[in-house]
Amino acid sequence: GRAVVTAAAIIMFSVFGGFVFSHLAMIRPMGFGLAFGVLFDAFVVRMLVIPALMHLAGEAAWWLPKWLDRILPNVDVEGASLERAHPAASPGQPSPAPAR
Fold first, then answer.
1. Domain residues for 47?
2. Tens digit of pLDDT for each residue in 49-87?
3. Of 18 and 99, which is predicted with more confidence?
4. Looking at CB atoms within 10 Å, which of 22, 45, 62, 100 has the fewest?
5. pTM for the predicted model, two decimal places
6. How many CA atoms lie within 13 A of 90 on its CB side?
7. Any domain includes 100
8. What total number of domains does the chain contain?
């Protein structure tokens, strides 16, 4: 995550920093403000403040209320529930041939 945040921040800073050289007087401070805001958010907030707060909160950072846990769907991105539902073949049975 660190490399992606850093790369995105540098790209956004470059784009918004380019607005500082605009001929329109109203765009210059907006470009400076956005460029400074992106750098502050990426390097101070996302790489210093949030990790420190997550460390201080410990397990409480991942607490989920029971009522919300019942409402939210169980999303299994990596397919771990499929592995539990279909156990591997027992040692006496041959495993199926791999698909090619």
1. 2-71
2. 999 999 999 999 999 999 999 999 988 888 777 776 555
3. 18
4. 100
5. 0.60
6. 2
7. no
8. 1
For tokens 């592995």, the residue is: 83
Task: Give the integer Cα–Cα distance in Å for 30 and 10.
Answer: 17
3-state secondary structure 22-51: CCCCCHHHHHHHHHHHHHHHHHHHHHHHHH
Tens digits of per-residue pLDDT, 10-43?
999 999 999 999 999 999 999 999 999 999 999 9
Residue 49 lies in a domain: yes
Q: Are 22 and 44 in contact (CB under 8 A)?
A: no
Q: What is the DSSP letter of 93?
A: S
Residue 56 lies in a domain: yes
- 92 band by pLDDT with thresholds 50, 70 and 90: low
Place of tokens 């109203």: 26
3-state class percentages of the chain: helix first, strand second, coil last, to nearest 5: 70, 0, 30
